[in-house]
């Protein structure tokens, strides 16, 4: 088992979860600034937005998780602040990020959909990296599997997924790989196949949610409504439907007006 604490200096403890999340935010920010330069958006706007988006995303991701797991925290409310133990819901983080980003965009009169297209590859890349924080904390895994099934995975994954004398599906890995695939698709679309503003955003909504819906059904720690309905699956279905509808509407509008948003060159 991997020690979740990477560095300990006296009372100061730095957790792998925090390091991995920090790396995800750093690479995502760097990529968004790079994409903004290529698209004609001042990269300083991206940096200013990130300063708002990251804390808002973390706070909302935690509040979202705690809301659906209140029984776990009601007797120990200080544990709410122990984010290094895990418990950050991606959909909550997206809500926080959108709210903070929208406020900045409205204040500075910037094109929302164009900026969203710039940010979405960074978001999905960050999600792909962030899932390895779940790996370290031995969370976000699936149901029990046999030792024979786990033989197809590297030894370090097998060992970390051996919890309480039982092997479990490394669903964190499935989603990380899927997110990397979606990242590649979004980057290709942004640079070579973008026809209108919003296309990358809507594609993210559809593709990420398709993978999340399927993988979520394998997990054992899903947030639930009424003890039966998986919240992430319900949200994923809504995002898929919204993404498809918006994609069709904006594609038709672009075709009717004859306007094509050139891909980044």
Automatic annotation (TrEMBL):
Enzyme class of the recorded protein, top EC level: transferase
Localization, UniProt: Cell membrane
GO molecular function: transferase activity
Transmembrane segments: 14-34, 46-65, 85-105, 112-130, 172-191, 198-215, 231-251
HAMAP family, per the entry: Lgt (MF_01147)
Protein function: Catalyzes the transfer of the diacylglyceryl group from phosphatidylglycerol to the sulfhydryl group of the N-terminal cysteine of a prolipoprotein, the first step in the formation of mature lipoproteins.
PANTHER family: PHOSPHATIDYLGLYCEROL--PROLIPOPROTEIN DIACYLGLYCERYL TRANSFERASE, PROLIPOPROTEIN DIACYLGLYCERYL TRANSFERASE
Superkingdom of origin organism: Bacteria
Keyword line: Cell membrane, Membrane, Transferase, Transmembrane, Transmembrane helix
Membrane protein topology class: Multi-pass membrane protein
Listed EC numbers: 2.5.1.145
Binding of a 1,2-diacyl-sn-glycero-3-phospho-(1'-sn-glycerol), residues: 131
Record PROSITE patterns: LGT
Similarity comment: Belongs to the Lgt family.
Protein name according to UniProt: Phosphatidylglycerol--prolipoprotein diacylglyceryl transferase
UniProt-listed Pfam families: LGT (PF01790)
Organism: Brevibacillus porteri
Pathway(s) served: Protein modification; lipoprotein biosynthesis (diacylglyceryl transfer)
């Amino acid at each position: 088992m991997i020690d979740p604490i990477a560095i300990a200096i006296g009372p100061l403890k730095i957790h792998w979860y925090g390091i991995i999340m920090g790396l995800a935010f750093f690479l995502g920010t760097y990529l968004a600034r790079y994409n903004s330069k290529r698209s004609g958006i001042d990269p300083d706007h991206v940096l200013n937005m990130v300063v708002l988006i990251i804390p808002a995303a973390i706070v909302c991701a935690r509040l979202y998780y705690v809301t659906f797991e209140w029984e776990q925290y009601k007797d120990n409310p200080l544990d709410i602040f122990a984010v290094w133990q895990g418990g950050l819901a991606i959909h909550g983080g997206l809500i926080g990020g959108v709210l903070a980003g929208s406020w900045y965009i409205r204040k500075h009169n910037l094109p929302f959909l164009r900026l969203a297209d710039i940010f979405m590859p960074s978001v999905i890349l960050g999600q792909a990296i962030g899932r390895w924080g779940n790996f370290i904390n031995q969370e976000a895994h699936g149901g029990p599997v046999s030792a024979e099934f786990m033989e197809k995975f590297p030894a370090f994954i097998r060992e970390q997924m051996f919890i309480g004398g039982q092997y479990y599906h490394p669903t964190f890995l499935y989603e990380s790989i899927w997110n990397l695939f979606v990242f590649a698709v979004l980057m290709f679309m942004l640079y070579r196949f973008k026809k209108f503003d919003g296309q990358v955003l809507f594609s993210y909504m559809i593709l990420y949610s398709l993978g999340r819906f399927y993988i979520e059904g394998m997990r054992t720690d899903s947030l639930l409504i009424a003890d039966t309905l998986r919240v992430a699956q319900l949200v994923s279905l809504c995002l898929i439907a919204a993404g498809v509808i918006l994609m069709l509407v904006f594609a038709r509008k672009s075709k009717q007006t004859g306007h094509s948003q050139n891909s980044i060159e």
